[in-house]
Specification:
The protein is about 75% helix and about 0% strand. It has one domain (about 15-300). The chain is globular. Strands 1-2 form a two-stranded antiparallel ribbon. It has 13 helices and two strands, in the order αααααβααααααααβ. The chain starts with a helix and ends in a 16-residue tail after the last strand. With about 325 residues, it is mainly α. Helix 1 crosses helix 4 (about 100-105) and helix 3 packs antiparallel against helix 7. The chain has helices spanning about 1-35, 40-60, 70-90, 100-105, 110-120, 125-150, 155-180, 190-210, 210-215, 220-245, 250-255, 255-270, 280-295, and strands at about 125, 300.
């Protein structure tokens, strides 16, 4: 009984970490982006996370060596996740509220489901899944409508932020599909360290080419925001997510996709004074309902599902 209670408590704590810390990263991203250019934010965050994960692996006696084939595949996925997706997210949050951004990013599970449905050997959506996908598309239109049709005219910055977020979400969705297709023979933390390390190198290169180091304003709040993203967003949230995937059904773990935006919106309201138009709130609710519908719908699985970011399949 005591063991069962302890396991239940660990699961509850892990869920709390994934729900809160991943939801709170949108606020931290906004703070970091106010002081530092997006590529530099992504570079420092990825670098710190890599150091922490690599140190953890070394302490556990796990080798960080991987094959050349595995390395380039990890690099592709890592760049899509933490260079394209993460940097674009920082950039977008300079144009739209953090809560708004979290809702658009929450569409990733729907994008993954659509890609899986049209690719060979992918998972096919059932009727409930397609209903959720259609509702998500309608929700996206409702969410962006106030910025397309406002009394002051077209909100170009808001529309640009929306489009950047869509590209960021697509990058993560594509990376997720590739993670399912690639076969990595590596410990989960080793693979994630490689992904973050490769993304960090790309982000540092982009920051150098863009002259970000000359224009960076290294403030205490900006540095603390990046440290928070690296420690709590990447490492703590990652560890909790891995634990949940090993002990809880994937459909329950995936609920983070529609809980994180709620946390992000509440933080935006409380600390940044962010406000959303009534239509945007309606779009948010519709999108979150659509994501929940897709996640909880049954699909015809061609092969055992794996987590797109962390649970990497084994190469024979």
């Amino acid at each position: 009984m005591a063991t069962s209670a302890a396991r239940r408590n660990r699961i509850l704590i892990a869920f709390a970490c994934v729900y809160f810390f991943w939801g709170s990263t949108y606020g931290a991203i906004r703070i970091a982006g106010e002081h530092l250019p997006p590529p530099l934010v992504g570079a420092v965050r990825s670098f710190l996370s890599t150091i922490i994960l690599a140190a953890w692996c070394l302490v556990r006696g796990i080798s960080l060596r991987v094959s050349r084939a595995t390395a380039w595949r990890l690099a592709v996925v890592g760049i899509l996740f933490m260079s394209v997706n993460n940097v674009l997210l920082v950039w977008a949050e300079q144009k739209v509220p953090s809560g708004y951004a979290s809702v658009v990013i929450a569409m990733i599970p729907i994008m993954v489901a659509i890609f899986e449905n049209v690719t060979p050997d992918g998972e096919t959506l059932n009727l409930r899944g397609w209903v959720g996908t259609v509702l998500g598309a309608i929700g996206m239109f409702v969410l962006v409508w106030p910025r397309l049709h406002s009394s002051a005219g077209l909100d170009r910055q808001g529309v640009a932020g929306f489009l950047i977020l869509v590209v960021a979400a697509l990058a993560f969705a594509v990376g997720s599909i590739l993670s399912r297709r690639f076969h990595f023979k590596a410990d989960t933390f080793v693979a994630t360290a490689w992904q973050l390390g490769c993304a960090s190198a790309v982000n540092f290169m982009a920051a150098g080419i863009g002259g970000n180091f000359r224009h960076a304003v290294w403030t205490t709040s900006g540095i603390l925001a990046i440290v928070y993203l690296a420690v709590f967003g990447s490492v703590v949230g990652l560890t909790a997510y891995v634990y949940l995937l090993k002990h809880v059904p994937v459909t329950k773990v995936a609920t983070y996709a529609f809980v994180n935006p709620v946390v992000a919106v509440l933080i935006g309201l409380a600390f940044f004074g962010e406000r959303l138009a009534p239509a945007e709130v309606g779009g948010m609710i519709l999108i979150l309902f659509a994501v929940a519908t897709v996640i909880l719908s049954r699909t015809k699985v061609a092969q055992p599902p794996t987590d797109p970011l962390l649970e990497l399949p084994i190469e024979e």
